[in-house]
Design a protein that fits this description.
globular; 232 residues; 57% helix; 434 Repressor (Amino-terminal Domain); 12 helices; mainly alpha
Length: 232
């Protein structure tokens, strides 16, 4: 007999030895709301189900569950934190001639083309390759014959560069965004405050496309303070 969605959500939390209060501290979904979902008193919101699915790497939609692969999980977390619909994600991928739907079927890095495409995605989304589990070790294995010395060096350099400047998108970062969204407004996305900068300051931020949200927010606060001082 299939389990109900509230039973699955309860099972996931308990299997990770997490109290309702602990889950609230992690995500800012209220403890009383979590309790009402788990008891079946209220229908779980799609935001809560999505968070539980992606953070604990277990899809729970339609009263069923299965594990995500690494590509699927990261891309869906990215889509969620930026509030993009599927049409927007397809557009982003099409700009790099990558099939948005095929990427979900990837399970490993089978050849040079696979790795090159993942690096294209990382570059487009401004993510570290390690977000997808891709590191230089994938091209250092001696029995991988499809690498020439030239393209091996090229890929190594790309991976190292993006590791330095990209965002590491994992479940901790994802949870931090969802928590902030729940504490503030439903539409919160990373760098939202930065987009509200005056045009003369936006040029500065545009020079830092891979900077962390914390770094950009610090810059924003300083620029805002400068603006306030100038008006005194």
């Amino acid at each position: 007999m299939a389990k109900l969605i509230n039973e699955i959500l309860l099972e996931i939390r308990k299997s990770h030895k997490l109290s309702r209060k602990g889950l609230e501290n992690l995500s800012a979904f209220k403890e009383r709301t979590i309790a009402s979902y788990e008891r079946g008193e209220r229908e779980p919101s799609k935001e809560y189900i999505r968070f539980m699915s992606l953070y604990f790497n277990l899809r729970v939609e339609d009263n069923a569950k299965y594990f995500y692969n690494e590509f699927e999980k990261v891309i869906l977390m990215y889509q969620d934190i930026y509030n993009y619909d599927e049409r927007k994600m397809i557009q982003i991928f099409n700009e790099e001639n990558i099939n948005y739907f095929k990427i979900f079927k990837r399970q490993s890095y089978k050849n040079f083309r696979d790795i090159a495409q993942i690096l294209k995605i990382c570059e487009k989304l401004k993510l570290k390759p390690s977000s997808f589990g891709l590191t230089t070790k994938h091209i250092d294995v001696k029995n991988i014959s499809f690498f020439t010395d030239e393209n091996r060096q090229e890929i190594e350099e790309k991976i190292k560069k993006m590791e330095e400047i990209g965002l590491f998108l994992d479940k901790s970062y994802y949870a931090s965004i969802i928590k902030r969204r729940n504490q503030q407004i439903k539409t919160y996305t990373p760098n939202q405050e930065i987009k509200e900068l005056p045009k003369k300051y936006q040029a500065i931020v545009d020079l830092l496309p891979y900077a962390s949200d914390k770094f950009l927010e610090d810059i924003y606060k300083k620029l805002k303070t400068m603006k306030e001082i100038q008006t005194i």
